From TrEMBL:
Highest taxon of source: Bacteria
Single Gene Ontology BP annotation: negative regulation of translation
Entries under InterPro entries matching the protein: Iojap/RsfS/C7orf30, NT_sf
Protein name per Swiss-Prot or TrEMBL: Ribosomal silencing factor RsfS
Comp. bias regions, Basic and acidic residues: 1-11
Length: 142
């Protein structure tokens, strides 16, 4: 499941991952904090991908774009600071110094923030979305 998110983040909250002991509230709260932080920093083309049943690394992958290397770094840094301050979550971040692609590991969620050109080159969404979801997402961008 993947959904393109509006400003109101009306996407459904993820259910608990089978056998992980993670609760819906934990995942939903983390997801909400991430999406709010991305919106506050004017991240573009935000996509959330449900990884439950596809990977054990996380429940959700969120991909977003910033317009410049500077904005990508600022979005990532603000997200890490927000999650630490509001939820006590210590995230690991890689790639901030380059500012082309920043990976933020938040435990139950993994966030990728790209410059648009880099995101287009790697097309990370295609690795995780089904063909039907890719067609749906393409239709939503038009």
């Amino acid at each position: 499941m993947s959904e393109r998110l509006d400003a109101d983040h009306s996407a459904p909250d993820p259910a608990p991952a089978a056998g992980t002991g993670r609760t819906e509230t934990d995942s939903a709260t983390l997801r909400r904090l991430i999406l709010t932080s991305l919106e506050d920093d004017k991240a573009e083309d935000v996509v959330a991908i449900d990884l439950r049943g596809k990977s054990e690394m996380a429940d959700t992958m969120i991909i977003a774009s910033g317009r410049s290397s500077r904005q990508v770094g600022a979005i990532a840094e603000h997200l890490v600071d927000t999650l630490k301050a509001e939820a006590g979550i210590l995230c690991r971040m890689e790639g901030k110094d380059q500012g082309d692609w920043v990976l933020i590991d938040c435990g139950d969620a993994v966030v990728h923030v790209f410059r648009p050109e880099v995101r287009e080159f790697y097309q990370l969404e295609k690795m995780w979305l089904s063909v039907d979801e890719q067609v749906k997402r393409t239709g939503q961008q038009d």
